[in-house]
Design brief:
Elements (H helix, E strand, L loop, with lengths): L6 E7 L4 E6 L7 H10 L7 E10 L6 E4 L5 E5 L13 E8 L10 E9 L2
Parallel strand pairs: 5-7
Antiparallel strand pairs: 1-2, 3-4, 3-6, 4-5, 6-7
């Protein structure tokens, strides 16, 4: 994983069945690239707890976050979504969970836990 441009540190925690990945500021790492590396190493990817920055999009049927750096768009779910209305069109930092991928793909969904404005 350290060979992926944009990764600052990788800390495997085999006893806990997880790996902590810290990305460099301004990275353009895509989640699907991380999933591919995990699968290529014969491991099963699980849910990902994330902190990401992006622009909250409120114009569509579902609230969404456009990630800074990659411009990927993720649907947002969870009770904390109601907090986002005041951030429409603004850049925010969110904490959330991307559910475990199924089969070869994963859903571009973030289960939102908290949101805060960027400094």
């Amino acid at each position: 994983m350290k060979k992926i441009s944009g990764i600052e540190n990788v800390e495997p925690r085999l006893n806990e069945g997880k790996t902590i990945i810290k990305l460099k500021a301004g990275n353009q790492v895509r989640f699907d690239d991380l999933v591919k590396v995990v699968r290529d190493k014969a491991f099963t990817p699980k849910e990902a707890r994330i902190t990401v920055q992006g622009e909250f999009l409120s114009g569509g049927a579902k609230p969404q976050l456009k990630l800074s750096g990659t411009n990927e768009v993720y649907d947002l779910t969870g009770p904390a979504v109601a907090e986002l209305k005041k951030f429409a069109g603004k850049t925010v930092l969110i904490d959330g969970v991307i559910p475990a991928p199924k089969d070869k793909a994963y859903l571009k969904v973030i289960q939102l836990k908290s949101v805060r404005p960027t400094p």
